[in-house]
Amino acid sequence: MSSMTTIIEVRTSPHLHAGNSVDSIMRNVVWALLPICAYSVWMFGISALALIATSTAVCVLSEHVLCHLSGKPSSVGDFSVVITGVLLGLVLPPGLPLWMVVVGGLIAVGPAKMLFGGLGFNAFNPALVGRAFLTAAFPVAMTSYTPALAVHRFTEWIPSSLAWPLMKAPPLGDWIAKVRVDAFTGATPLMLQKFDHVATDPWTLLFGARAGSVGETSALLILACGAYLIVRKMMDWRIPAAMLSSAFIFGALFHLSNPALYPSPWFVLFSGGLMLGAVFMATDPVASPVTPLGMWIYGALMGLITVLIRLLGGLAEGVMYAILLGNALSPLIDKFTQPRPYGATKKARVTA
């Protein structure tokens, strides 16, 4: 009887492979963002289309050039920079001058991503870094919003979109005068609630027919696009679930303490950029924790910060700052939520 020799080869972990490459995941994120982009263009017209296209093109071109200058192969083929460009466009006002969009794209790719080493090394969400820079450099333009569903949105530009660099944008009076009588005003629901104490029906926010950033569209559509990625196992559901539930809970506590002053938790949940931020920006796999417990802490913290800025701070919106602060705390959260190796003491886990 012949003897048989069995060779067992043990490799380093991980031993399981999901079959999804970085390119595949990034492409699917782009596909998930396309319906949101299409709905945004339907809401705001050719200015929104030009804004998203400009931010995406600038980000892609910037990364390609920077890779060439640094002597590295171009990394635009992994689609991560496409996501940066699309997300940057979605978090900007639809009438923002296109030359400012170019500046934001350069900042998002240069200092925010490539300076740290490119994909996998950025400490903060690049699109939000670009938006934060634009908010600090051009505060008036970044808080100037135009109504949605203007009847001439596909035939006429928002005047400020084509403003020349460092020149005052044309007044919006004539353009807004052409808007349908039943359209919304240029103030966002968050601004109306914060400064004028005018409430907006939370359920109308589900469909996004309101003034705001390009991507502040239908909350229902954003959830559906995020669900696609979760079902495909290309996004961890814990972070958006933690951030949205935290914002809802703390918003409810404020509302119960003073219903006349603070809006309902449903308004907190569906207004502004919370839905887009929780689903597509807080979940940045590079700048977010990797442990399950860390994801819950990370998301809950960002939901709380969003509510505190909105309801107690001087700004109407706080999602951008909440996510950037969460990105900054992500390494610390990961450090203290690492699971204990088998046989190790608790002290060894914390100091590892």
Task: Briefly say what this structure is.
The protein has 352 residues and is an all-alpha fold. It has helices at 22-44, 46-69, 80-90, 98-109, 126-137, 139-142, 173-177, 189-195, 219-231, 238-257, 265-270, 274-281, 292-312, 319-336, 346-351.
What does this structure look like?
This protein has 352 residues and is an all-alpha fold. It has a single domain, classed as Ammonium transporter fold. It is built from 15 helices and no strands. The chain is globular, with a radius of gyration of 22 Å. About 1% of the residues have low confidence.
Highlighted features:
single chain; 352 residues; mainly alpha; Ammonium transporter fold; 15 helices; 0% strand
Order of helices and strands: HHHHHHHHHHHHHHH
What is the terminal separation in angstroms? 52 Å
- Let me know the average pLDDT: 85
The main sheet comes to:
none
Q: What portion of the residues fall into strands of 2 or more residues?
A: under 5%
Return the CATH topology: Ammonium transporter fold
Element layout with pairings:
Blueprint: H1 22-44, H2 46-69, H3 80-90, H4 98-109, H5 126-137, H6 139-142, H7 173-177, H8 189-195, H9 219-231, H10 238-257, H11 265-270, H12 274-281, H13 292-312, H14 319-336, H15 346-351
